[in-house]
Amino acid sequence: GQSLEQPSEVTAVEGAIVQINCTYQTSGFYGLSWYQQHDGGAPTFLSYNALDGLEETGRFSSFLSRSDSYGYLLLQELQMKDSASYFCAVRPRMDSSYKLIFGSGTRLLVRP
Amino acid sequence: GAGVSQSPSNKVTEKGKDVELRCDPISGHTALYWYRQSLGQGLEFLIYFQGNSAPDKSGLPSDRFSAERTGGSVSTLTIQRTQQEDSAVYLCASTPSRPDTQYFGPGTRLTVL
Questions:
Q1: Are B36 and B96 in contact (CB under 8 A)?
Q2: Any CB–CB contact under 8 A between B72 and chain A?
Q3: Contacts by B57-62 with C-beta closer than 8 Å and gap 24+?
Q4: How far apart, in whole angstroms, are the C-alpha atoms of residue A30 and residue A38?
Q5: pLDDT per residue as tens digits for the range A1-48
Q6: B99: which chain A residues are within 8 Å (Cβ-Cβ)?
Q7: Residues of A in contact with B91 (CB under 8 A)
Q8: Alpha-carbon distances of A48 from A81, A96, B29, B78, B96, rounded to whole Å
Q9: pLDDT tens digit at each of 113 positions of chain B
């Protein structure tokens, strides 16, 4: 089967850097995605790693290491508006290649 | 252009009643997904549509749940004889091609009393 593990909650200070980890157990997948969800809002796509390495999009970066079954989302220069839940997701490499499996999410609280 | 829209935004119903939830995907997006999210939890896959067909209904929790999509666009998720455990936010998402980048609607918050 497939499962993704994320810390349930992370707290950081405005202006700091925070890393949200995602470890997974899956036999094979196409890539690792990250989504952000503010309270009461819809999940929004942040980044996607098809290959190992670092992908950078402004203040956000995402990393994938297939050999370590591990990925992370890095948020730099934290702002109060970054307080939200962050979900990692994988698309298992199976016959049904359309389904995304989501982690349970990490709630990020940014303090002044 | 317009994003994914869902209606109603909130629905309060009594146990045993039927409810219909609607999703309007982004125009041109061929794939449509329904998810369920309980408070503080992750997203639970329910069903996927490619065009009007649903190749995989295995995520539907019980036979009280059904969904259809017409004209390759609007989708309706129906829950019959609602139970209190059905209370959750129901999210719809659509994608143009690659399934890893999904565009979500604002969700319908369902409360079963």
A1: no
A2: no
A3: B61/B36
A4: 26
A5: 568 999 999 999 999 999 999 998 877 888 899 999 999 899 999 999
A6: 91, 97-100
A7: 42-43
A8: 21, 19, 19, 32, 16
A9: 589 999 999 999 999 999 999 999 999 898 999 999 998 788 999 998 888 888 778 889 999 999 999 888 999 999 999 999 999 999 999 998 777 889 999 999 999 99
Cβ-defined contact of A42 to B56 (cutoff 8 Å) = no
Residue-wise pLDDT for A54-105, tens only, equals 999 899 999 999 888 899 999 999 999 999 999 999 988 875 567 888 999 9
Q: Is B51 on the interface with A (CB under 8 A)?
A: no
Q: Which residue of B has its CA nearest to A86?
A: B42
Residue to mutate among B38, B100, B101, B103, with most A CBs inside 10 A, is B100
Residue with tokens 């125009």: B27
Strands A70-75 and B103-104: unpaired
**DSSP for residue A8:** S
Find the CB nearest B104 among A31, A43, A48.
A43
CA distance A35 to chain B (A): 9
